[in-house]
Design a protein that fits this description.
4-stranded mixed beta sheet; 493 residues; 12% strand; Lambda Exonuclease, Chain A; 4 domains; alpha+beta; 5-stranded mixed beta sheet
Length: 493
């Protein structure tokens, strides 16, 4: 995407004004052009993020870029959609390539560079080719593709959406959405926007047709990854509640003609990053990988008034060097954290808010919980408590937790619920094998290795138990033994 330049850009910016940290729309026609009497999953996601960016980008004219991620993704979607609408035995890789070449002929005429056309075909092919590793296209029973769902309320909100495909299952229907971008690595930290989209589609079909899809799936075709989407009652309730909240935010923004900003690392990809008060205050700058943002030296957005000064909080004093276990009365020069501004955090799965760590996040609960465990362990062993000792033991515990969490999600992620489970396992290990303060380096190394093994073992046994009980009807999965307590019987010898 490229933005307007010159007089056109200045004219566009005159339609907006900063009202504190909100982006006000001064032009009623510009506002009304984006007003909707329904909410789509993508707009709901935008309302949970930075609404100011959403409303501004709705007014930015994008110049087509056939090699842009969105354009390549759209082309790959088109190939798969046409492929699915063919008879089952005609859904082959060769036929997909034929569909792609026909699509390329529509985008490139004889005047275009043939090498450019060939390059574009290769890029689109790479975006969809992994699909053929995910399923046998001949066996999929297509019910509908690009199914528009409208004139229905989801969580009391007028809904609009378009489902990539609906398929027949043994007991009903399933829904799928194809994605050509990256596979989300940590939905506990970043949210599950792709899963939320399918949960909303599922509810819309239930309300409209009286049929709840049996399953929902995400097809990451570039990477040949398939993910099942949870449709459990708790996850549905969470998604529907967020959707209703987004509708309230959407209505409030249009009522006030002002859209809230939300500073985050995504600011680096926003065209307003150089002009936005929230992004500037949080210290975000344009990403080197983003389309050039608006240059603040050449353009500006007016302010309706000066933003109110932010209240400054006192520096953090989490640890007193003169506590009952302290021996060194001289405060250390370093600090654990200083709170720059005081604000109420957002939802707990948002690790950052306004460019800072969100104090309500699961991540903060995780790091504070680990630090508290280190503090309690030092105190119970009557050890000296100061920042150095607390920090060293906290970091030690973090490495054990990281090893345990790898069993569950493959990496250390403070904002993921699996971190809580790994911390619980470590706490159990410490009850049985206390940290050996004052031991030799070799003894400390041996304790660490033992703590890692035992933490991982606890988690692995728990996961085996889940597999044995959750798949009791699966012939390929061995269930619980008949008499597991026999393991503890006295030996005959």
């Amino acid at each position: 995407m490229s933005i307007l330049v010159g007089d056109n850009l200045d004219s566009l910016l005159q339609a907006f004004a900063w009202d504190g940290d909100r982006l006000a729309v001064a032009d009623s026609q510009a506002l009304d052009a984006q007003r909707r009497d329904y909410l789509s999953p993508s707009t709901a996601e935008a309302m949970q993020g930075c609404a100011a960016r959403w409303i501004f980008e709705k007014h930015v004219r994008a110049e087509p870029d056939l090699f842009g991620p969105a354009e390549l993704g759209t082309a790959a979607h088109s190939v798969l959609e046409h492929l699915w609408n063919l008879p089952a035995d005609a859904r082959t890789r060769l036929r997909a390539m034929g569909l792609l070449r026909s699509l390329a002929d529509q985008h490139f005429d004889d005047s275009n560079d043939e090498n450019l056309k060939t390059e574009w075909i290769a890029e689109v092919r790479a975006a969809y080719l992994g699909y053929f590793e995910l399923e046998n296209p001949h066996e999929v029973k297509i019910v509908a593709t690009e199914q528009t769902v409208t004139d229905v309320e989801v969580a009391g909100v007028p809904f609009f959406g378009k489902i990539d495909r609906i398929i027949a299952t043994d007991g009903g229907i399933g829904i799928d959405d194809t994605k050509t971008g990256k596979v989300p690595k940590n939905i506990g930290r970043y949210g599950d926007k792709h899963g939320d989209q399918l949960r909303l589609y599922s509810e819309a079909l239930r309300v409209r047709d009286g049929v709840q899809p049996e399953r929902a799936g995400l097809l990451y075709t570039r990477h040949a990854v398939h993910k099942n989407v949870a449709l459990s009652k708790p996850r549905m309730r969470e998604t529907l509640s967020d959707f209703a909240d987004s509708w309230d935010t959407f209505a409030t923004c249009f009522r006030d003609a002002a859209f809230e900003t939300k500073a985050s690392p995504l600011c680096g990809w926003c065209p307003l990053v150089n002009l936005c008060p929230a992004a500037q205050e949080a210290g975000f700058r344009q990403s080197d990988r983003a389309v050039p943002a608006i240059d603040a030296r050449d353009h500006t957005i007016a302010h309706t008034d000066a933003p109110a000064p932010r209240e400054q909080a006192s520096p953090d004093a989490a640890y007193s060097e003169g506590g009952r276990h302290a021996t060194d009365q001289t405060p250390e020069k370093d600090t654990i954290m200083e709170t720059k501004t005081r604000f109420i955090g957002t939802k707990p799965w948002d690790e950052f808010a306004r460019g800072q760590i969100n104090p309500n996040s699961y991540a903060v609960a995780g790091v504070i919980g680990t630090t508290e465990l280190a503090y309690e362990t030092l105190a119970s062993a009557d050890q000296t408590i100061n920042r150095s000792s607390v920090r060293a033991l906290t970091q030690t515990f973090a490495k054990v937790i990281e090893s345990g969490q790898e069993v569950l999600v493959g990496t250390l992620a403070w904002n993921d619920n699996s971190n809580t489970r790994a911390r619980g396992a470590l706490r159990s290990v410490l009850q049985v094998n206390p940290f050996p303060f004052g031991s030799s380096s070799d003894e400390l190394d041996a304790w660490f290795a033992l703590a890692v093994r035992q933490t991982r073992s606890i988690i692995q046994v728990a996961m085996e138990l889940h597999e044995q009980t959750a798949a009791a009807d699966d012939d390929d999965v061995e269930g619980l033994p008949e008499q597991p307590w026999a393991h503890f019987a006295a030996s005959d010898n």
